[in-house]
Amino acid sequence: MDESSALPGDPSELHLRISYDDGLCDTPQADTLERWEVTVLHRRRTHHGGEDPAATGDCVQADCPSCTVEDVAIGALTFYRVHFDRGRNAYWAMEEESEDLYETAQVLLDQQTGSFSEEVSERLEYIGADLLVMDRVTLDRQWRGHGLAVILATEAIHRLMPGCRAIACAPGITDLSSHRLKDRAEWDRVTAKIAHGWERIGFRLYRDGIYLLSPASQDLEEQRGELRGRLVELGAAWRAATS
Asked: What CATH number has the domain bearing residue 18?
């Protein structure tokens, strides 16, 4: 069986909804940290062929008059945009927001200035000013294992990175429901696989599990084109396998 046929739907029908919920809070914390939510949606066309339940299913005809279209959430990504030039000290703002952000701040930021440490700054090109943190990437279980997380994250990063000097992430496992991940060797294997996916688009390990990516990275631009091609291939293979 082709791997694409195991997908629950046509991956060509995936798209992203990027949003920022502004609580209109006039606080230094809100000015320093922006939380961006990216919802992964699958556009599903359901054909209603009568009373027989067997006649109802996914339809591949875009203009079918018997179809209804709905967007179903099958995953989510969370990003934080960190502003160093407004609001409060970014180091302490990240510490207050979450443990994961605090760990990133400890590695990348100067506690006193709230900006990039001198060592980190020397590694970065002078393009933009902010820090974009890819905090969490999740997909429903049936959509995993096909490289879609990297494809979707690359598109989200491309939309959110203008004005940023660096993108940071800490590759890790967010879904702890699998019993097999209680084995340390399996945990390490899966974590390494996740890290390899982010390395493919240009993330490089800096220190203590924190990876950095420059918005000017040629890897990011080149891989975006290749990954888009991969998505097209997966969609074509899925349609061929299910027709």
From this structure: 3.40.630.30
Residue environment code for 2-31, b if the CB has 16+ CB neighbours within 10 A, otherwise e: eebeebebbbbbbebeeeeeeeeeeeeebe
State how far the Cα of 89 lies from the Cα of 32, in Å rounded to an integer. Answer: 8
**Which two structure tokens, joined as six digits, stand for 104?**
């990133």
Quickly count: other Cβ atoms within 10 Å of residue 120's Cβ: 21
Element containing residue 39 per DSSP (H, E): strand 33-47
Evaluate if residue 123 carries a pLDDT over 50. yes
CA–CA gap between residue 92 and residue 114 (Å, rounded): 8
Per-residue pLDDT tens for 165-174? 999 999 876 6
Task: Report the half-sphere exposure of 152 (CA within 13 A, side-chain side).
Answer: 30
CA–CA separation, 184 vs 131, rounded Å?
32
According to DSSP H, which parts of 53-209 are helical?
Answer: 90-97, 99-108, 118-123, 148-160, 184-200
Number of domains composing the chain: 1
Question: What residue numbers bound the domain in which 211 lies?
Answer: 3-242
Q: Residue 242 — very low, low, confident or very high, per pLDDT cuts 50/70/90?
A: confident
Higher pLDDT, 235 or 189: 235
Of the chain, the percentage scoring pLDDT greater than 70 comes to 85
